[in-house]
Automatic annotation (TrEMBL), chain A:
The gene is NDUFB8. This is NADH dehydrogenase [ubiquinone] 1 beta subcomplex subunit 8, mitochondrial. InterPro entries: NDUFB8, Ndufb8_metazoa. PANTHER family: NADH DEHYDROGENASE [UBIQUINONE] 1 BETA SUBCOMPLEX SUBUNIT 8, MITOCHONDRIAL, NADH-UBIQUINONE OXIDOREDUCTASE ASHI SUBUNIT. The lineage of its organism: Eukaryota, Metazoa, Chordata, Craniata, Vertebrata. Pfam families: NDUF_B8. Signal peptide: none annotated.
TrEMBL record, chain B:
The keyword Electron transport applies. The lineage of its organism: Eukaryota, Metazoa, Chordata, Craniata, Vertebrata. Keywords: Disulfide bond, Electron transport, Membrane, Mitochondrion, Mitochondrion inner membrane, Respiratory chain, Transport, Ubiquinone. This is NADH dehydrogenase [ubiquinone] 1 beta subcomplex subunit 7. Accessory subunit of the mitochondrial membrane respiratory chain NADH dehydrogenase (Complex I), that is believed not to be involved in catalysis. Complex I functions in the transfer of electrons from NADH to the respiratory chain. The immediate electron acceptor for the enzyme is believed to be ubiquinone. It comes from the Eukaryota. GO terms for cellular component: mitochondrial inner membrane; mitochondrial intermembrane space. InterPro entries: NDUB7 (IPR008698).
Length: 191, 122
């Protein structure tokens, strides 16, 4: 509240007719910001209210539909289809090419969410079910193959390697006081 | 290459040796006399050389000689061919012995199965 007042005052100082104190005292304000007739109104009930709201938001009466009144505070703002800007024609000459929007066009309630950098509601190139099947099919197959690999391990047909000094008992941190189990490694007679 | 896996999992699942289990036959069985393997490098020597545990095997004396040769001949990295060959040959013989041990265990298992089959048939 104080912030809005301060902004008004600063704008009045910069754009007012007079200079400095006289601008502040004359009470003129800037032309930016919403005016009384564009501000959000209460949810429309009667056909006249609907028509007036449609005109206010630059929509045809057939296209205008308010949000259902559940006390959430939408007022008479139009409920536009939940489609992101990424779905709009990229080749048409929009007034704002990045936002893919023309001047004066009614903005979606979540317009800042539906810009091209953020949420994209474009249809997937392949049906969703196909994509799901492919992804989970592949993951499932890989998991199954890894499971098989763990159950039926592959190894070289060799005996385990022999180590000296009772299987490196002391080197592996064995207790020097305790006697470890006896390990005997034998020579190969052929060598 | 892989025949042992086929034997282990499909054809001879009861006789093919399992790498996870300990070998059940006495190492001296079937040999008139079998000498023990000698370890040449001492524990202190291996410790001083800071050998990793996997390299403290029965070929460590060749590896220690190789390390000394390399250190003495640096930067001539082509110098220690003879020592490297000695160590490689020792490791190779060790691996061949491991293969032979595996095969010995496998044949003893088959023999045991044959004897049991004969005993049952009789």
């Amino acid at each position: 509240m104080a912030g809005v007042g301060f902004r008004r005052w600063a704008q009045a100082l910069s754009k007012g007719k007079g200079s400095g104190i006289s601008a502040l005292l004359s009470g003129s304000r800037a032309a930016s910001g919403s005016s009384k007739d564009t501000v959000l109104g209460p949810p429309p009930k009667s056909p006249e209210e609907m028509a007036a709201a449609a005109k206010k938001y630059n929509l045809r009466l057939e296209d205008y539909a308010p949000y259902p009144d559940k006390g959430e505070g939408f007022g008479d703002y139009p409920k536009l289809p939940d489609r992101s800007q990424a779905e709009r024609d990229p080749w048409y000459k929009w007034d704002h090419p990045d936002l893919r929007r023309n001047w004066g066009e009614p903005m979606h309630w979540d317009f800042d969410m539906y810009i091209r950098n953020r949420v994209d509601t474009s249809p997937s190139p392949v049906p969703w079910s196909t994509m799901c099947k492919q992804l989970f099919g592949f993951i499932g197959f890989m998991l199954f193959m890894f499971y098989l690999g763990e159950t039926f391990r592959s190894y070289q047909p060799v005996a385990p390697k022999q180590y000296p000094y009772k299987n490196l008992y002391l080197e592996k941190g064995g207790d020097p006081e305790k006697q470890p189990e006896e390990v005997k490694n034998y020579r190969n007679l052929m060598t | 290459m892989g025949a042992h896996l086929v034997r282990r999992y499909i054809t001879e699942t009861d006789t093919e040796p399992d790498p996870a289990k300990k070998y059940e036959f006495d190492p001296e069985f079937g040999f008139p006399e079998r000498k023990e393997r000698e370890m040449v490098a001492s524990q202190m020597q291996m410790n001083l050389a800071q050998l990793p545990l996997e390299q403290r095997d029965y070929c460590a004396q060749h590896l220690l000689k190789l390390m000394k040769c390399k250190r003495d001949n640096w930067p001539n990295f082509l110098a220690c061919k003879h020592e490297r060959h000695d160590w490689d040959y020792c490791e190779h013989q060790d691996y061949v012995m491991r293969m032979k041990e595996y095969e010995r265990e496998r044949r003893l298992q088959l023999r045991k199965k044959r004897i049991e089959a004969q005993a049952e048939a009789a």
